[in-house]
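WARN no homologs supplied; continuing
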Amino acid sequence: MIDYDKARKALEALKKRNLTLGAVESLTGGLFSASLCAIPGASKVFYGSLVTYHEKEKCALVGVPPKLIERFGVVSQNVANAMARGGREKLGVDVCVSFTGNAGPSAEPGGAPVGRVNMAIATRYGHVEIQRDFGLSRNEIREACVETMLDALIAIYEP
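OK structure emitted
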């Protein structure tokens, strides 16, 4: 279950620093964005998101190089970083977060096990990398991703 108080705190922390936020979501399918949009006044900070569920959309919409996906797999820190950097540019925001992972039901051939998630936070100064392995159900993994990212944003930006 999403903690909307955390969503509010993350938005307030970014607002106090006059920063704008965007997101590029894959396995979360817009859940992070929906969590922010549930907070009145979110539009003062949150500009929007791109849901790039299929790998082709990661390439087409945010410029993830196909060779990066071929080399490291769609669920990888390299792809999460590229998603966040590309999203920051495409959305014209100060901070962009990204989510890619395997919420199941099965492991990807030669790739990430169920529960593996890679996330990133891109800024003009660089990026923060987050990898987690969640032993949860599909939707619990998605919610845990949102909670993890909200915690990270609060930890980084709250005064």
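The longest helix spans residues 138-157.
OK
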